[in-house]
Amino acid sequence: xxxxxxxxxxxxxxxxxxxxxxxxxxxxxxxxxxxxxxxxxxxxxxxxxxxxxxxxxxxxxxxxxxxxxxxxxxxxxxxxxxxxxxxxxxxxxxxxxxxxxxxxxxxxxxxxxxxxxxxxxxxxxxxxxxxxxxxxxxxxxxxxxxxxxxxxxxxxxxxxxxxxxxxxxxxxxxxxxxxxxxxxxxxxxxxxxxxxxxxxxxxxxxxxxxxxxxxxxxxxxxxxxxxxxxxxxxxxxxxxxxxxxxxxxxxxxxxxxxxxxxxxxxxxxxxxxxxxxxxxxxxxxxxxxxxxxxxxxxxxxxxxxxxxxxxxxxxxxxxxxxxxxxxxxxxxxxxxxxxxxxxxxxxxxxxxxxxxxxxxxxxxxxxxxxxxxxxxxxxxxxxxxxxxxxxxxxxxxxxxxxxxxxxxxxxxxxxxxxxxxxxxxxxxxxx
Length: 431
Description:
The protein is 16% helix and 38% strand. By secondary structure, the chain is an alpha+beta fold. Strands 12, 14, 15, 16, 17, 20, 25, 26, 27 and 29 form a ten-stranded mixed beta sheet that branches. Strands 13, 18, 19, 21, 22, 23, 24 and 28 form an eight-stranded antiparallel beta sheet that branches. Strand 22 (299-304) and strand 23 form a beta hairpin. Helix 1 (2-25) runs parallel beside helix 4 (52-62). It is elongated, with a radius of gyration of 34 Å. Mean pLDDT is 78; it is low at 19-31, 37-56, 65-91 and 95-109.
C-alpha cells in the first residue's frame, strides 16, 4: 500500500506542475491545462487506476480553474474515457459533472478479460487476452481446477467435462470469464459398411419399399424390386428412375431401407453418392426411427437433392413438434458454386450423445465440411427429440412430389441413376 500512496503523491505533484506551467507562467485558460493533461495521458490513466477517492483529491487541484463548458469539451475529446466521480459545485455555485472512471471495453485502465466464454475439449488449451493493468500484480485462478487450470499468463488447460470460472485479479479489481469443457469421446471406428461389391444386394441388411401411393409427398413414381430400378454394378448400388407406365404410375424407381435389419443409435453415418440431376428428380439419403409411426419415430435427412436446384444441399430433422405439417420445421441448406450432380460427394451426419450440458447434437457434412447442426431441445421428451433410439438407413430416388416439383420428361432421354459407392457407419466409445 505504501507504493500506491507514493504513486498517488507523485501524480498530485505532476498535476500541480502541469497546472502551474499553464496557469501561472502562461496565464492561460483551462483549455490549455487540459491539453497538457491530454498530452500526458498516462497520468490521467493512473488517476483512474487508483480510484474515486483519489479523484476527489484531484478535484481540489482543479477547483480554482474549473469551467463547465471547457470541461465538457475536454470530456468529448477524450473519447476513450468516461470519468465519473459525481457532481461538483464550483466556487461560483455551478454544478459540474466530473468524471474519473473508464468505461468497460475502452482503451483505458479498467481491467477486462476476453472473450467472456470459451468452449474447450479435454486436453485443449486457450490463452485469454486482457486489458491494461499498468504492470500491477495479477493473479489468475480457476474455481474448479479439476475441470480446467489456468497459468499466471492466462493460459487455460481443459482437463474434464464441466464448467469453471476463471478470475483475473489485481489489487484494485477483478474480472471473470467462463470456461466450458465439453464431454469428449474416443476416435470413430468403423462398425458396419456396405461397399456394394458383387452382383447381388445383401437382403440380410436391405429391404425394399414398394408401391406408388405418393408416399405422403405426392410423389409420382412406383417403387419396385426389379433390377431395372435397383441393382449392383461395378462395385456400386444403382437406383434408377424410369419414365414408364407401371401400376397406374408414370414413373418407376427404387427405395431401399435397413429397417428391422440394421439400426444404429449415434455415430457417424455417411455415404458417397452421385445424384442423377434433372428437373423433377428428388434423391435422398436419410434415416428414420425403427419403432413407432412417423413423425413420432423421428427422421434425419442426411441429404436431400432437388434436380431443379442442382447446387443446393438440403438437411432436415422431423419430430412430432417440428415436421412441416404444422407450418414449422427444422431444415438447413447450403448453396455450392457447382452442381452436386456432376460428381460423387460424401454426405454424412455426426450424431453425438450428451456432447454438451447433457444434450445430444446432430451435425451435417458434405465432403467432410460441416454445414449445419441441431442440438437436443431444452425440454427433453420424445416429441421434441426422438433421436436417442435406434434408427435405420434409407436410400431412394423419388420423382416429383412436394420437393421434387414438376418433371421435365426430356431428362429421361438419358438414364436417371443415383449411384451409391458405399454406406458406412462409425461409432466411438467413451474415453
